[in-house]
Amino acid sequence: MSFKELGIQDAFTEILLQNGIGEPTPIQKETIPVILEGQDVVGQAQTGTGKTLAFVLPLLQKIDSERDEIQGLIVAPTRELAIQITAEVRKLTDTNSEINVLAVYGGQDVIAQMHKLQGKVHVVVGTPGRLLDHIRRETIDLSGVSTFVLDEADQMLHIGFLSDIEDIMAKVPASRQTLLFSATMPDEVKKLAETYTKNPRDIQVKTKQITLKEIRQRIVETTDRGKQNDLVQTIRLLRPYLAIIFCRTKRRVSKLNEALQTKGYNSDELHGDLSQAKREDVMRRFRDGEIQFLVATDVAARGLDVEGVTHVFNYDIALDTESYIHRIGRTGRAGGKGLAVTFVAQKDRRLLQMIERETNQKLNVLKLEYM
Ligand code: ADP
Ligand code: MG
């Protein structure tokens, strides 16, 4: 089954091919035809399964570039994710279409953004806070929106964006098509979907832990005091190409990053306290391979799709299984092999057992000779 057979135009399939994307993933196969038909969709598939293209392709295909208004609105939980989705849209529209896309997120110059919005913009990708800002200032007109996408809905609610999302939805015509995508479907997301979609097609792709299977997962038994040293030893032996290291708090991120830099490692930090410019700069340098180790908090790294991430280190163990899956999903994206290493001190044992139980697997101790 090809993208063409799903109803995607040659103009797009050609660009996909140039980017090495020929065969649709399961979630793309199931959702694209339904979205093209105009039905609401509630789509669930694990991280790294290609949900972005699943909604971006049909959304773009429905845009009438002659109509001078915002027709597609995509809401994402973080700035990084909004930037990433925007880049994906640009890749598909830059060379061969008149479709214009604008990213709307915090930390940018509001005036410049407003100017851009006066121009011809067909697709807006934004974070809830900044979108609401524009709505309140009446600097954005969403009355022409015919397709509304809520991406990473579980994460959106996790961060506490529910009321923002409701306020945004109220400004989008009721006749719109609504698409909601999520890696997991907790009750709050189901409720949101029930409230805001009309007779949606529920599409769940049970990947039977495809992502998890493609990622080798190991643990390193450690102590709180010995952890930093154990991490350095592990890095030395594994020699990652690009790695993300997760810590529980911003302070722990900064502390560990400093320690790594002092030891001569090429690392930098990503968390919510950095300025927008700094965050973008760090992300760009990591993508370009100028930074080898990205030390990050959960929220900052959520949804990030960076090619070539060979290793994820859970320096601090994830507090729940969802976040464990999200974290390790940063490596081994779309088929590439990855290794996720979780550092486990005595007091982390209970969390480890919970993760093992909920992902139906036993995590083995890292044996360096096999890596
Ligand atoms: P998700 O939103 O489900 O976490 P993404 O949309 O971020 O996943 O996609 C993950 C990665 O897979 C991206 O690098 C994307 O370019 C790639 N990808 C998407 N669709 C395909 C496909 N059909 N074939 C190969 N790679 C794909
Ligand atoms: Mg996604």
Report what the structure shows.
The model has no long low-confidence stretch (mean pLDDT 89). It is built from 16 helices and 14 strands. Helix 2 packs parallel to helix 3, helix 3 packs across helix 4 and helix 6 packs across helix 8. Strand 12, helix 15 and strand 13 form a beta-alpha-beta unit. The chain folds into two domains: 203 residues, P-loop containing nucleotide triphosphate hydrolases (Rossmann fold), CATH 3.40.50; 158 residues, P-loop containing nucleotide triphosphate hydrolases (Rossmann fold, 3-Layer(aba) Sandwich). With 371 residues, the protein is an alpha/beta fold. A seven-stranded parallel β-sheet has the order 3-4-2-5-6-1-7, with helices on both faces. It has a seven-stranded parallel β-sheet with strand order 10-11-9-12-13-8-14, sandwiched between helices. The longest helix has 15 residues.
Main attributes?
2 domains, 14 strands, globular, binds magnesium ion, 42% helix, Rossmann fold, alpha/beta, binds adenosine-5'-diphosphate, single chain, seven-stranded parallel β-sheet, 371 residues
